[in-house]
Automatic annotation (TrEMBL):
Catalytic activity annotation: (6R)-5,10-methylene-5,6,7,8-tetrahydrofolate + 3-methyl-2-oxobutanoate + H2O = 2-dehydropantoate + (6S)-5,6,7,8-tetrahydrofolate
InterPro entries assigned: Pantoate_hydroxy_MeTrfase (IPR003700), Pyrv/PenolPyrv_kinase-like_dom (IPR015813), Pyrv_kinase-like_dom_sf (IPR040442)
UniProt function note: Catalyzes the reversible reaction in which hydroxymethyl group from 5,10-methylenetetrahydrofolate is transferred onto alpha-ketoisovalerate to form ketopantoate.
Organism (species): Coniochaeta hoffmannii
Name this polypeptide is given: 3-methyl-2-oxobutanoate hydroxymethyltransferase
UniProt keywords, alphabetically: Pantothenate biosynthesis, Transferase
Family to which this protein belongs: Belongs to the PanB family.
Top-level division of the source organism's lineage: Eukaryota
Gene3D superfamilies named in the record: Phosphoenolpyruvate-binding domains
SUPFAM superfamilies, alphabetized: Phosphoenolpyruvate/pyruvate domain
Amino acid sequence: MYFFSTVTRSCASLSRTARPTHFAARPLLSALQTRHSSHSPLGTPPANPRKKVTLGTLRSLYKKKEPITMITAHDFPSAHVADAAGMEIILVGDSLAMVALGMEDTSEVLVDEMLLHCKSVARATKGAFTVGDMPMGSYEVSPEQALQTAIRFVKEGRMQSVKLEGGKEMAPTIRKIATAGIPVLGHVGLTPQRQNALGGFRVQGKTTSGALKVLEDALAVQEAGCFAVVLEAVPADVARVVTEKLSIPTIGIGAGNGCSGQVLVQVDMAGYFPPGRFLPKFVKKYGDVWGESLRAIETYRDEVKSRQYPALEHTYPMPGEELKAFEEAAEGVKGQETS
């Protein structure tokens, strides 16, 4: 603010004096455009920014049977690139417990930690519809507890909706949140927060009774007011039938291409981790962020060691007479003695 106030005062002063008009514009414009730090992470705005995705947009895609694209993000950079790539939905998933915070599983992450990441994602997301994943322990006690948590995700986390896991047993909770005007994304099939009760990360719905449970759960969350439901780790044919029975979109993850849309964890599909890391069968690796980052950082290390970096073009010049005067003045300055 001080810089711009100074420039404003300088402009006003120039307008009140008899200084030549050709002097005023260019030096001030140059000063305003000069930047000596990587302060703005957003870069150049797109020439034709897309319209903000809303629930109406998602319903329209569903009616047209156009697949809905969804991906996770856990901070400003991952949300920024996902939004720029045209994702319709960005999920701040509790998977960030493992991929961003190094935890053993999603049960460790706390509401306050989720909200910090939600706020970071919200700052970068201009077009996509955002969903915040309510972590284990923040909604199971009662519908009232769930609503209080959901409100925090909207007010503090700046999310447009929330996600929670569970089927028929969570219907009253979903109804409580949805009735309060907060959109809810359901999640049935494999529910990672309940992995201990499920015997681990196992495919759900492989038997007739298991498949019927997935269908009943999906119908229950739809009836309770969910705008869509995630189907995780269920046979593709089961997911296809469930999708046909519902009147809201299904978002598949390990559930085949018969769903209304798909979601993946960005860190998994973009290859953020070194070779050898376990990936579920349904993950397709679309990139190698780890490899490219490793190459770049190793090259930087080598150039620093060899003094190739920084080169002349990476430094700021000093007028020759000023440099000479500085060197002469510096000769009289006593440096720190080393032992």
